[in-house]
């Protein structure tokens, strides 16, 4: 009996040892599995972090490539435009210096052909314009401030792109003063509150224009160059030689201005004069995107005693010094659509002023005239009526 008990005890000991060994084995396996799971988690986290970093790098590189693509496309467009410009200027020079015909042409026939072309141009332009406003009177006058010298130009963006205000003081400078609003301009001391924009070259005269975030100004040299300057990027986006030979000052009272750029409801215009039409002022329509000259007109408005001009709905208004003391008036008008004649248009007097208007800039958005008068910045509120009411 005792031997049997001893045998049972031995067997129990053996079973307990095996169980303990099995438990130890299982514990070691579980620890090894936990170590591998922990290592797998670490590797997964590292791979995920590296993948995120790689994704961020790729996104940044793709954005950089997109910017480079847009910049390259813009440069290619600019180069293409300039190539077209060179070709047009070469064509223009060829037409000016072409060989004389070998046969005689009847002068009357040539005159008839020129008349037909002019009439066709007028008819074409008349179909493109819907605006029919013209000046009836000067409704009000407001003197905002006195900044700068006797001659200069101030204006908003006449395309209505922003509410910013720009001061271009003098007839030969390269610093444009930019104010965020009219209130900032009137409340600042001089130009202390303005942002200074440096142009790559000095302007000539007072005939500048700001239209759709671009400054259009003239640079005088061997040729009169029209320069288009991006006010947001501060770079020149295009230049063109103005295709008119032997230019003269467009206004006898402001001989510094050879070309006066104007903006109206129809876009960008150039008011100028040449020796070919010495006594009178000429008008040209400009494509603001390409600087191409779309059409040209000779007006009946004389240069003598003229001080400034502006355009409204395709009608140019020329201001002259009046016989009355310190007064000027709109004495000549020319309408490209022939809806208004100089005889029918009202003779509008400006209120009493300080000197000669150095510049008059029309805002089609506000129907205001921005005038520079002996260093004073003046606003004229215009009373308008329809051309058909004349």
UniProtKB/TrEMBL annotation:
InterPro entries: Gal_Oxase/kelch_b-propeller, Olfac-like_dom, Olfactomedin-like_domain. The keyword Signal applies. GO terms for biological process: signal transduction. Residues 1-17 form the signal peptide. Residues 55-89 form a coiled coil. Residues 130-386 form the Olfactomedin-like domain. It is found in: Secreted. GO terms for cellular component: extracellular space. Disulfide bonds join 131-313. Keywords: Coiled coil, Developmental protein, Disulfide bond, Glycoprotein, Secreted, Signal. The keyword Cell cycle does not apply. PANTHER family: OLFACTOMEDIN-LIKE PROTEIN 3, OLFACTOMEDIN-RELATED. Belongs to the OLFML3 family. This is Olfactomedin-like domain-containing protein.
């Amino acid at each position: 009996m005792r031997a049997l008990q001893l045998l049972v005890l031995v067997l129990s000991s053996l079973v307990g040892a095996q169980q303990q060994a099995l438990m130890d084995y299982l514990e070691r396996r579980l620890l090894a599995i936990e170590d591998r799971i922990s290592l797998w988690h670490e590797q997964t986290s590292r791979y995920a972090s590296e993948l995120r970093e790689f994704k961020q790098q790729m996104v940044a590189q793709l954005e950089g490539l997109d910017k480079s693509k847009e910049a390259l496309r813009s440069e290619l467009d600019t180069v293409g435009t300039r190539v077209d410009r060179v070709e047009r200027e070469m064509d223009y020079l060829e037409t000016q210096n072409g060989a004389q015909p070998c046969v005689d042409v009847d002068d009357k026939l040539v005159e008839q052909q020129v008349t037909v072309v002019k009439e066709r141009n007028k008819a074409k332009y008349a179909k493109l314009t819907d605006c029919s406003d013209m000046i009836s009177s000067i409704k009000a006058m407001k003197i905002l401030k006195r900044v700068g010298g006797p001659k200069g130009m101030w204006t908003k963006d006449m395309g209505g792109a922003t509410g910013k205000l720009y001061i271009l003081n003098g007839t030969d400078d390269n610093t444009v003063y930019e104010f965020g609003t009219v209130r900032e301009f009137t409340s600042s001391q001089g130009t202390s509150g303005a942002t200074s924009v440096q142009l790559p070259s000095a302007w000539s005269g007072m005939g500048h224009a700001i239209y759709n975030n671009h400054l259009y100004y003239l640079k005088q040299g061997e040729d009169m160059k029209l320069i288009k300057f991006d006010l947001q990027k501060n770079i020149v986006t295009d230049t063109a030689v103005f295709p008119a030979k032997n230019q003269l000052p467009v206004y006898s009272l402001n001989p510094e201005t050879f070309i006066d750029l104007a903006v109206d409801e129809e876009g960008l215009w150039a008011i100028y004069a040449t020796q070919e039409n010495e006594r009178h002022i000429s008008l040209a329509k400009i494509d603001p995107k390409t600087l191409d000259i779309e059409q040209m007109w000779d007006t009946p408005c004389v240069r003598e005693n003229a001080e400034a001009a502006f355009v409204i709905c395709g009608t140019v208004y020329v201001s002259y010094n009046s016989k009355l003391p310190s007064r000027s008036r709109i004495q000549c008008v020319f309408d490209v659509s022939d809806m208004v004649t100089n005889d029918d248009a009202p003779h509008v007097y400006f209120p009493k002023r300080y000197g000669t208007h150095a510049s008059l800039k029309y805002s089609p958005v506000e129907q205001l005239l921005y005038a520079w008068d002996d260093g004073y910045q003046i606003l004229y509120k215009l009373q308008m009526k329809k051309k058909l009411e004349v």
